[in-house]
Design a protein that fits this description.
With 109 residues, this protein is of the alpha+beta class. The protein contains three helices and three strands. Bound molecules: iron/sulfur cluster.
């Protein structure tokens, strides 16, 4: 005799599908974790003066750069950070460092 409190196989499968369909997934975090980190040697990164550390920016080349400007407070970041790394609209498919900076920096509102 089956325990009235237990799920039979069919009910278990239905419940599993319902959970799979309705449970929110941390898509941004999952995707961010899978992306490679932007290299400072990437041609676009070099052109924009990107550095993983805002304190390492070439101040002579980018005199308007301020040390308190970084990717974490830039308007062009996307989604949630994965550790110290986050997606950026200027470098699709790559992660930039939250403490990084490039000439595309725009103050986050
Ligand atoms: Fe960082 Fe903003 Fe430059 Fe992207 S555009 S690399 S978030 S400073």
């Amino acid at each position: 005799m089956q325990d009235p409190n237990s799920l039979d196989r069919r009910e278990f499968v239905k419940l599993g599908l319902a959970v799979a369909v309705t449970a929110p997934l941390p898509i941004d975090a999952a995707r961010a974790a899978d992306l490679p980190k932007l290299s400072e040697d990437d041609p676009t990164a070099k052109a924009l003066g990107y550095r993983h550390d805002t304190n390492a920016v070439d101040q002579a080349r980018f005199p308007n750069h301020k040390p308190d400007q970084n990717c974490a407070n830039c308007k062009l970041i996307q989604g949630e950070a994965s550790g110290d790394w986050i997606r950026c609209q200027l470098f699709p498919g790559k992660l930039v460092n939250t403490n990084g900076w490039c000439a595309g920096w725009v103050k986050k509102a």
